[in-house]
Amino acid sequence: MTVLLDRPLPRAGAVAPDRPARPRPAARDPFLDLLRVFAIALVVLQHWTIPVLSFDGARLSTGNALAAPGVWVITWISQVMPLVFFAGGAANAISLGRAAHGAPQWLFTRLRRLAWPLLPLAAVWIPLPQVLASLGVPEQPLDVGARLTGQLLWFLAVYLIAVTATPWLLGLHRRYGAWVPVVLTAGAVLTDVLRFSTGLDALGYLNIVFVWLAVHQLGFRYADGRLSHPWALAAGGFGAAALLVWAGPYPGSMIGLPGAEVSNMAPPTLAMLAVAVGQIGLAVTLRPWLVRLPVGRLLAWAGPRVMTAYLWHMPALFAVTGVVVVALGLDTPAPGGLGWFAGWPLWFGALCLVMWPLLRWFRRFEEPPALPYGVATWRGALTSAALVGGGLLTLTVAGFAPGGAPFLAILAILGGLLLTGPRTRA
Questions:
Q1: Whole-angstrom distance, CA of residue 115 vs CA of residue 108
Q2: Quick check: 312 and 362 in contact, CB under 8 A?
Q3: C-alpha triplet 354, 360, 361: angle, nearest 5°
Q4: Would you call 405 helix, strand, or coil by DSSP?
Q5: Quick one: CA torsion of 399, 325, 332, 60, rounded to 10 degrees?
Q6: What is the DSSP secondary-structure string of 268-306?
Q7: Alpha helix positions (H), 177-269
Q8: pLDDT score of 1 more than 50
Q9: Does this model's pTM top 0.85?
Q10: Position 21 pLDDT exceeds 60
Q11: What is the pLDDT of residues 24-63, one digit of tens each?
């Protein structure tokens, strides 16, 4: 998701033109790189910090430190997936606009970049539960680790929808402009009305499309320099979210919490979309100050490693949990207490020690190998996307728990990757 910006944003308060400006010399936009690195770093920090873990000799219990009363307000900033979809939307709009070989070839390229890093993850996690079980590791903690590692892939499955739809969404953006996210927002409103009025929670999963594509579409507007008055977006988004939470039935937390009747994330709700708009408005408002931060070297180092960090930070957590909590029997302290604050640096340090070699070993898979592409057609590109997406969805639901599902999922992903290459003729 490293991106280029061919036009600067308009001045604060200025109204951007509806027609594209004449292209200017390309330059990296450090703001989008910063958003991407910041978002993934915060995801890792949050996942490493919030678990409340205990083991009774057979069963690993998992809680959430953010379930404490009043702490949910932190999630309005710490739930940063909207920023990832926003930056991804800008990246997709810019790269597709510069694609030299057409949209199907562009989609092939994007699919390889998304799917290739999954192969070493699968190579480790498909046999790992059986190997550890044969060494006497209790079954239930293994099952928790294997399933949660797969559940983390929900983001890639949803992002793949956005990537595949980009050529059509970008065409709609160029023709209808701001009406596209408005219509998607209306779809999110209607979905929640039907969901909560009928009690059919499954209807809420339509918002995977409406909510995340609306956020993705705002990235298009940023890339075109049309995201004016960001302070109004920030105030309107957070204000609307506060009103929705106050009126109900939306919970205050923007992450799923144990025992909650409703989650704003699974499936996403209108409240999640409102917070997303607020976050984007706040980030773009702060952009002039953010781009002056002396973080160029940090971004240059972290940028090529963000996918590796996202995919492997949970396995690092399970490795430390397996030693400290399961093997040594040391439960994590109650959140917010003296023991928690005193022990957190040791916990975080152990996680970093495990994560460092994982970054070194698997960072090379961020870039797919320089293999030739096949003749890109829409049939081939969409079939490849369907196979990769089906594999990701299977892993999201079933994880890497023992059974046939992970094998079928990886076979589908491999099939999608093979379709991007040239085919030999008899």
A1: 11
A2: yes
A3: 90
A4: helix
A5: 50
A6: B-HHHHHHHHHHHHHHHHTHHHHTTSS-HHHHHHHGGGH
A7: 179-198, 207-223, 230-247
A8: no
A9: yes
A10: no
A11: 434 578 899 999 999 999 999 999 999 999 999 889 998 8
